[in-house]
Known about the structure:
Blueprint: H1 9-23, H2 30-37, H3 41-44, H4 51-74, H5 79-96, H6 98-104, H7 110-114, H8 117-131, H9 139-159, H10 169-185, H11 200-203
Helix pairs in contact: 1-4, 1-6, 4-5, 4-6, 4-8, 5-6, 5-9, 5-10, 8-9, 9-10
Amino acid sequence: MAARVGLTGERVVRAAADMADEIGFxxxxxxxxxxxxxxxxxxxxxxxxNVQDLRTRVAVLAVGEMTDRIGAAVAGRxxxxxxxxxxxxxxxxxxxxxGRYAATQIQIDPARAAGSPGHLRSVELTYGMLxxxxxxxxxxxxxxxxxxxxxHGYSSLEATGGFGHSRDTGVSWDRAIDALHVLLEHWPxxxxxxxxxxxxxxxxxxxxxxxENTP
Length: 215
């Protein structure tokens, strides 16, 4: 049990992230964390505002940690090597840190995300890797969404035992990366469409083209 005098905001958030990995992100609470530290709930409120603030800070921490690992994996690589390194680091983080990974998927305040180095770097890493395939907007954002959907969907299904076939999931993962590489190298040309007046909600979310603020 930690002594009350040893509590800091950073320590509280990291303990919450560890707890999320152990029992699930949605089960993290101020009361559960206080019990772990051996203090009253009130002792934590000098470091966090409420449970929502706690979970948001865990999300910011988790995005930063995940981005650091992906950044280290792709450093000095390009093309398929970068794609594979990115994908493997993503999957490894998701499977080894299920609570932290769940935290990276929550929506947080745009201003909070904009001020988070981890969120900003994750966008730069993802878009930078895809630009190496010669993609420009709007194809860049379409490709980011495709990768995010594939990586998240596969990792989530694997983590919950969603693949029933006996074929090794690692082998299928490698084949999926091969297929994504081929697709990115031969990205289809956009079909011309009749221009329309942007809906107000679309215009107001122009910056949301970088909504993929997690790797």
